[in-house]
Each structure stands twice: as structure tokens, then as C-alpha cells.
């Protein structure tokens, strides 16, 4: 069996992109869950719970989280 070469250490830019992507995907998942829960609540009530503004706010929060995670990881890599 041939030993595998060790993978190169991640750069701060690659680590930041990876973290931002993970955070963005988490934000998308949370937006879907919030949207589904709000849609169910809307069906059970008078129909005023879900608006486009609610969905945009949830999606914007997820995108903002990803941006902050990217910047934070880049700064962490640069401060070493």
C-alpha cells in the first residue's frame, strides 16, 4: 500500500472561502425552514404571515452571515 502524500495546509483565503460557503449553505437551509414554517403558519391563520419582505430579510441575513464569516476568517489568517 502506497502512503498518500499529505494534503497541503489550507491558505487563509481558501479557508475563508470554505467557511463562507458553509455559512451561506447554512443560511439557505435556515431560510428554507423559516419560509416553510411561516407558510404553514400563514395557511393556519388569516394569510398575512408570509410576505416577500420576510423571505428577502431571511435570505439577506444568511448572505450577511456568509460575508461576515469570510471577512472574519480572512482577518484571522492575516493576523498570524
Can you put this structure into words, describing what you see?
With 80 residues, the chain is mostly helical. The protein has one domain (12-78). Helices cover 75% and strands 0% of the residues. The protein contains two helices and no strands. It has helices at residues 12-44, 52-78. It starts with 11 loop residues before the first helix and ends with a helix.
The number of helical elements comes to 2
Give the integer mean of the pLDDT values: 77
Q: Ranges with pLDDT <50 over ≥5 residues?
A: none
**Fraction of residues in H or I helices:** over 70%
Radius of gyration, rounded? Answer: 19 Å
Shape descriptor reads elongated
Structural class comes to mainly alpha
Largest sheet: none
Instruction: Indicate the proportion of strand residues.
Output: under 5%
Tally of strands: 0
Secondary-structure element pattern, one letter each:
HH
* N-C termini distance: 37 Å
Write the layout of secondary structure elements.
Layout: H1 12-44, H2 52-78
What does this entry show, briefly?
By secondary structure, the chain is mainly alpha-helical. It is built from two helices and no strands. The protein has helices at 12-44, 52-78.
Keywords:
elongated, 0% strand, mainly alpha, 80 residues, 2 helices
